């Protein structure tokens, strides 16, 4: 794997761990990817333009999405609605994408689009992909950009 892609992955790992630790009091450990169809997944994407341009997609196992949303909102998991859970996952994607880009390109002007829920799509060509284990489930980050 080229050194630049390794640097992007290392930055993504650091950003994810910082955001999850600070905002959700959770730790993420990189693991080998297993995208079994038996799990339900929820995915959010944030597009960015400027130098660089591209998108980041955050995909979580559904059980993890509910746990994180409940913790973020300060409510019981049973109280998390689909809409509220989706909004929290979108905000998580926004925080992680911003943290990655501000570390990789601190002097660049990059505009982030509003995060949105997106179809789950593992293994899209041209993306950098990494999976993480959290005690409550799995999270995957995929970055695609014209810069790498």
Question: Top keywords for this entry?
Answer:
148 residues; alpha+beta; Chemotaxis protein chec; 7-stranded antiparallel β-sheet; 3 helices; 7 strands; 29% strand; globular
Give the overall form. globular
**From the alpha-carbon coordinates, what is the Rg to the nearest angstrom?**
14 Å
Whole-Å distance between the termini?
12 Å
- Low-confidence parts, pLDDT < 50 over ≥5 residues? none
Count of extended strands = 7
CATH fold call: Chemotaxis protein chec
- The helix count comes to 3
Order of helices and strands: HEEEHHEEEE
Class per helix and strand makeup: alpha+beta
Mean pLDDT over the residues: 84
Structure summary:
By secondary structure, this protein is an alpha+beta fold. Helix content is 39%, strand content 29%. Helix 2 crosses helix 3.
Could you characterize the architecture of this molecule?
With 148 residues, the protein is α+β, with helices and mostly antiparallel strands. The chain has a single domain (3-145), classed as 3-Layer(aba) Sandwich (Chemotaxis protein chec). It has 3 helices and 7 strands; from the N terminus they run H-E-E-E-H-H-E-E-E-E. Strands 1, 2, 3, 4, 5, 6 and 7 form a 7-stranded antiparallel beta sheet that branches. The protein is globular. The protein starts with a helix and ends with a strand. The model has no long low-confidence stretch (mean pLDDT 84).
């Amino acid at each position: 794997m080229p050194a630049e892609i390794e640097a992007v992955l290392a930055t993504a790992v650091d950003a994810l761990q910082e955001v999850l630790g600070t905002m959700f009091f959770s730790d993420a450990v990189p693991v080998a990817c297993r995208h079994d169809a038996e799990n339900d997944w929820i995915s959010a994407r944030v597009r960015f333009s400027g130098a660089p341009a591209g998108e980041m997609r955050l995909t979580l196992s559904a059980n993890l999405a509910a746990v994180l949303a409940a913790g973020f909102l300060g409510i019981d998991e049973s109280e998390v609605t689909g809409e509220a859970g989706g909004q929290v996952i979108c905000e998580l994607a926004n925080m992680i994408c911003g943290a990655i880009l501000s570390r990789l390109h601190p002097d660049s002007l990059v505009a982030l689009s509003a995060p949105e829920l997106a179809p789950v799509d593992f293994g899209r060509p041209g993306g950098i992909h990494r999976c993480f284990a959290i005690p409550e489930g799995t999270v995957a980050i995929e970055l695609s950009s014209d810069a790498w």
